[in-house]
Design brief:
Length: 102
Amino acid sequence: MDRDAMFWAARLLLGLAGVVLVFSSVRRLGRARAAATWPTAARVATLSIPLGWLGIGVGLLSLAGSVEISVWPVSDSAAAVAGPAELGTVSAAEPRAARRSR
């Protein structure tokens, strides 16, 4: 398995986990709010609300991680193509007069 295929698999798994966590957590929070508001709603566990918020947070972090994995190779290749001089970095060995002329 090459590196690109591993990145695609990681993106897919992280994205899928994020989507499942967010949707299931929103459903859990909805059921907990319904149980707290309506007397005829089914009872839910005591930890439903904290677990729902935790699931939303972890799901969003998972989605952010999959996006970061997607952007990371692009940003590395852009830095390699641009080089340090084009990115505006100044080396310590460069004379002060050359720095002022920029």
